[in-house]
Amino acid sequence: MTTTTLYYPNGDRYVGETVVAFTGTVPHGQGCMYYADGSVYNGSFLTGYRHGFGYMNCPNGDSYSGFYYQNARHGQGQSYVASRRRIYAGSFVMDREEGYAVVTSPDEFGRPRKFKGYYKAGLRCGQGVLEIYAPDNQPLRFEGAWLNDRLNGPGRMIHPTHILSGVFVNSFLEGQGTMEDRNTGVTYTVFFQNGNILSGYPVMKNGLMITGMGPAVVTGW
Predict the structure, then answer these.
(1) CATH of domain 103-221
(2) In the chain, what are the domain boundaries?
(3) pTM for the full predicted model
């Protein structure tokens, strides 16, 4: 392998180690690719492909650091989407977010949001924990099973004043469940519909509605 500079008709430029392949001299080993759109990849190549560990930085502020397999993000890595200030740190499979990850992104008010759990084909799928802020500006935690980016199955919604437990259907608590008053320690059997308590406990407490929230607060990022 030798270190050289390669120029491409589309404006890309490569500086680094190379090897002679059937198609000619190609990146192979450690090097840096300067793409015509302003993106820069610095890392490992295998017969012309981004392959192994590397760093990608884009002119819009997006970035990725982690492992590649034949140009696709594959294995452990961390991506950053500048427009949403979204950080995904976890597993990739052939350029898709898949496997366990920790994802952070601020909400529209700049408050922190975090998801810790499993992804499949870019969607939350499997066990996971979502930490956000409720409309009353209190921290809110969702725990449970996810399917197609929504809570589906047994889970809990934990608020500083109460804990709602039951079965989520497309991010809404539905059917029989429990409500624990964290101030008194008393647990009530309740019935949910579209995330709200229908019976078993007063739906108003200290002027605030006790609710299982809805899809708007658990999807979309």
Answers:
(1) 2.20.110
(2) 1-83, 103-221
(3) 0.89
